[in-house]
Amino acid sequence: MDSREVAYAALFIALTAVGAWIEIPIGPVPVTLQVLMVLLAGLLLGARLGFVTVLLYVLAGAVGFPVFSGFSGGFAHLYGPSGGYIIAFPPAAYVAGLFAERWEDVRGYLLGSLLAVGLIYLLGWLRLGFFMAGDFRRAFELGVLPFVPFDILKAIVAVGVARRVRKMVELM
Predict the structure, then answer these.
(1) pLDDT at 64
(2) Residue 119 — pLDDT band, cuts 50, 70, 90?
(3) Which residues have C-beta within 8 Å of that of residue 16, sequence separation ≥ 6?
(4) Considering the chain, what is the average pLDDT of its residues?
(5) What are the CA-CA distances from residue 84 to residues 1, 24, 109, 127 (Å)?
(6) pTM for this one?
(7) What Å distances lie between residue 1 and 84, 101, 103, CA to CA?
(8) Which of 138, 99, 133 is nearest to 117 (CA)?
(9) Is the Cβ–Cβ distance between 119 and 112 less than 8 Å?
(10) How far apart are CA 139 and CA 23, in angstroms?
């Protein structure tokens, strides 16, 4: 990584942490702006750097830095009810970045963002289902359905922001 990539990675790690601290509790998994920041990391930094950046964010939280929701950190979060969502963040950034690199238009950005959100839902739902003693239907009702409108909006916002920022700054 060159110095510019390190600076962008540090910026997105910080933005993702701030996004985690802005939360609306609606059940075992709160609504935060983490997903928006993960999508932006992928769309703006590309698949490789977006993945590495978000992976560093997850690792920082796992070793105890207070970057997760509620100003918290620690490895236990990866085993908690929101652990699957957090673990899905790096591959989700990769997916969003891959589509942004291959199709530099609104459709590619939006498709990549929605697939990334779907990946976050899949891994998050599975972990939450195991956390809830195998009640995957209830886990879907609590950990996916309430978030769909919020995350579709986040994907749309991420696409709009990414397209505007790309016009002003060459990031990839």
Answers:
(1) 96
(2) very high
(3) 34, 37, 38, 41, 54, 57, 67, 89
(4) 94
(5) 28, 19, 24, 5
(6) 0.94
(7) 28, 18, 24
(8) 99
(9) no
(10) 20
**H helix intervals, the chain:** 3-21, 34-62, 83-102, 106-131, 136-143, 148-168
- Please name the amino acid found at residue 67: V
Neighbours of 55 (CB within 10 A): 17
The pair of three-digit structure tokens given for residue 87, joined into one six-digit string:
């673990």
CA distance 103 to 76: 38
CA dist 48 and 53 (Å) reads: 9
Residue 119 contacts residue 126 (beta carbons within 8 Å) = no
β partners of residue 23: 32
Nearest Cα neighbor of 39 from 153, 170, 167 is: 153
| Structure confidence at residue 23 (pLDDT) | 85
Other C-beta atoms closer than 10 Å to the C-beta of 170 total 7
Single-letter residue type at 3 = S
7-35 as b/e: b if 16+ CB within 10 A: ebbeebbebbbebbbebeeeeebbbbbbb
Residue type, 147: F
